[in-house]
């Protein structure tokens, strides 16, 4: 059996120039599927607010909801590294609460937590790392700041913004985070960030130069089509095939074709 991926494996990948593959999952069934596909990292993302709960953004997702989903994923994931997203307001308050909340994810089976932002949460990141809680950072388009950013917009379009992003990436690296997600930034900006830090950069809408890639599972499987960003590639069309299967089931029940003898007990 393949041993479980660790944060040191991810850092080694960057040094070896081997790509890291990360996907979100929110429940046990999909976590099993993701693991069977050999994906390195499962992110229990607060994107569940949009793709599972049907909300317009991630802001209302609570600690209890994230812990519930993390528990489900972590209970079956044996090989992938499980990272839990810290929801809005679970780390923005005081450091003590941030550490308590981060620690609860590890108690639920996650191996690390992800926090959005840089300078403003640096003290929390380094405190978590000091207490043995591995942290992944998230820079660029940070969905928990959607209102501040004026919508889901591409970030770091000017060289000064790219320079700031590089400073932010260096700052989170100094705080001890083991990797950083770069979301919705030009490919060239991501390349500059990836070259400026020793920790792995995981891109989503950040071009090919990142050390790894992440996509939201429901996006890549074609299950969620309320909003499909340019950076999404649909590797399957499960919404379409699910509707087709369900329509067939409806027709079979209505016509008396289901259940047949094969699906009935003698
Ligand atoms: O919540 C999430 O799924 C994420 C990814 C988009 C990186 O943060």
Structural summary, described in words:
It is a single chain. This protein is an alpha/beta fold. The chain has 2 domains: 7-235, Phosphoenolpyruvate-binding domains (TIM Barrel), CATH 3.20.20.60; 237-266, no CATH class. It is built from 10 helices and 8 strands. Strands 1-2-3-4-5-6-7-8 form an 8-stranded parallel beta barrel, surrounded by 7 helices. The model has no long low-confidence stretch (mean pLDDT 97). The structure holds 3-methyl-2-oxobutanoic acid. Residues 24, 43, 45-47, 85, 138, 181, 204, 214, 216 line the site of 3-methyl-2-oxobutanoic acid (KIV).
Bound molecule types: 3-methyl-2-oxobutanoic acid
The low-confidence parts are: none
Number of strands: 8
Distance between the termini: 41 Å
**Mean pLDDT figure:** 97
Query: How many domains make up the 3D coordinates?
Result: 2
Summing up helix and strand content along with how strands pair, one would put the structural category as: alpha/beta
Name the CATH superfamily assignment of the largest domain. Answer: Phosphoenolpyruvate-binding domains
Write the element-wise H/E pattern from the N-terminal end onward.
HEHEHHEHEHEHEHEEHH
CATH class call of the largest domain: Alpha Beta
CATH architecture of the largest domain: Alpha-Beta Barrel
Shape: globular
Question: Treating each run of at least 4 consecutive H or I residues as one helix, how many helices?
Answer: 10
CATH topology of the largest domain: TIM Barrel
**Any idea what the radius of gyration is?**
20 Å
Approximately how much helix is present in the residues?
Answer: 40-55%
């Amino acid at each position: 059996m393949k041993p479980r991926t660790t944060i040191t494996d991810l850092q080694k990948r960057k040094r070896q120039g081997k790509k890291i593959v990360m996907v979100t999952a929110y429940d046990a069934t999909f976590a099993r599927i993701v693991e069977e596909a050999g994906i390195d990292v499962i992110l229990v993302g607060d994107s569940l607010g949009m793709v599972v709960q049907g909300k317009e953004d991630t802001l209302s997702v609570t600690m209890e909801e994230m812990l519930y989903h993390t528990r489900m994923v972590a209970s079956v994931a044996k090989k992938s590294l499980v990272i839990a997203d810290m929801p809005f307001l679970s780390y923005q308050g005081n450091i003590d609460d941030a550490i308590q909340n981060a620690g609860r994810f590890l108690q639920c089976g996650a191996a690390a937590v992800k926090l959005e932002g840089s300078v403003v949460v640096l003290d929390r990141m380094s405190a978590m790392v000091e207490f043995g809680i591995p942290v992944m950072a998230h820079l660029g388009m940070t969905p928990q700041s959607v209102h501040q950013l004026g919508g889901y917009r591409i970030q770091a379009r000017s060289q000064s913004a790219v320079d700031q992003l590089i400073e932010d990436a260096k700052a989170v690296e100094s705080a001890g985070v083991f990797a950083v997600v770069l979301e919705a930034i030009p490919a060239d900006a991501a390349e500059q960030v990836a070259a400026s830090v020793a920790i792995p950069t995981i891109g989503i809408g950040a071009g090919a130069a990142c050390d790894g890639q992440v996509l939201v599972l429901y996006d890549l499987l074609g299950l969620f089509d309320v909003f499909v960003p340019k950076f999404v590639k649909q590797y399957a069309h499960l919404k379409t095939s699910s509707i087709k299967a369900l329509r067939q089931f409806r027709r079979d029940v209505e016509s008396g074709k289901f259940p047949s003898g094969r699906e009935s007990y003698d």
